[in-house]
Amino acid sequence: MREKDYLARLTRTARWRLPTKEADDIIEDYTELLMIDFRPYEDLCRDYGTPKYAVRQLSFFRDYGRWLLTFWVLAAFLALPALGLFVPMPTISFLYGWQEALLLFLSLVLSIAWFRLEGVRFRERPDQLPLLMVVLILTGLSTAMLAQALFREVPLEGFFSNLPLEQVGFVYTTLLRVIGGCCALLALIGLVNARLGDRRWLALFTAGLTVVFLTAILYRIVTNMSIPDPPAVWFTTEVWQIGITAALGVIGTGVALC
Question: What angle do the packed helices 231-257 and 202-223 form, to 10 degrees?
Fold first, then answer.
C-alpha cells in the first residue's frame, strides 16, 4: 500500500465522520501533503497516524454524533417495514391503513433535508444506474403482485397454477420477503454511499425504501386474518395507501436525483 491507499482511506473516513466543508478541507490538505510524500502506507501511518486516527484528531464528536443519530433513525425507518416481512408487527390502531405511508413520508423528508444541507454533489453523475435498475425491476414485480392480490382479477391459486394449493401462500410470502430484503440492502448501500460520495446516491435509498414499504403493505394485506367491517372501506383505504406510498417514493427519488 502506498500514499494513494492512505489518501483513499482518509477520504472515506473524513466523509463519514465530518461535515462537508471540514471533510473537503482535510482531504485537500492531505492531498497536497501526499503529493510530495511517496512513502509506503506503513511509514505514513507511523508519522501521521492511521487515517481513522488522523481524522478523529481533527473532528468533534458533536458533528459526528448528529450524523450517527440521523443514520440510525433512517436505518430504523428502513428496518421497521423490512422486519415486518419476517416478524409479526403490531398495527398502530389510530394509524391503521396509513402507518407505512406516514413513516415513508417522514423518512423521505428527513433524508432529503439532511443531504441537501450536509451532502455534496459532484459534477459527474454517480455510477448508480445499474443498482437503480435492479430496484425498478423489483418494483415492477412487487407492483404486479400488488395488483394481482388486491384486484383479484386472477385468483392467488391461478397466479401460481403449477403449485399445489397448500404451497401457494408460502411461495407468495417468500417472494415478498426476497424482494423486500433485497431492496432493503440496496437502500442501505445508497444511504452509505450518499454520505461517502455524491448525495444523489440517496435516490437508491429512497427507491429501495419505497419498495420495502410496498411489499410490507402487501404482506400485511395477504396475511391479515381479520378484515374489518365493512370490507369495502378497508379495501379502499389500502388501495389509497398503496397509491400514495408509490407516489411519495417516485417524488422523493426524483428530488434525490436533482
Answer: 170
pLDDT, tens digit (0-9, with 9 covering 90-100), for 114-145: 999 888 887 777 777 677 778 877 777 777 76
| pLDDT of 111 above 50 | yes
Q: How confident is the model at residue 89 (pLDDT cuts 50, 70, 90)?
A: low
pTM of the complete model: 0.81
- 8 A C-beta contact, residue 41 and residue 1: yes
Q: Does position 215 have pLDDT exceeding 70, yes or no?
A: yes
> How many other C-beta atoms can be found within 10 angstroms of the C-beta atom of residue 167?
11
Which letter does DSSP use for residue 227 in this model? -
List Cβ neighbours of 126 (8 Å cut-off, separation of 6 or more). 193, 197, 198, 200, 201
Compute the distance between CA of residue 227 and CA of residue 232 in angstroms, rounded to an integer.
10
In 3D space, the residue among 234, 249, 106, 240 whose CA is nearest the CA of residue 190 turns out to be: 249
Closest residue by Cα to residue 223 from 145, 182, 169: 169
Asked if residue 110 has pLDDT above 90, the reply is: yes
Query: CB-side exposure of 15: number of CA atoms within 13 Å?
Result: 19
Other C-beta atoms within 10 Å of 107: how many? Answer: 26
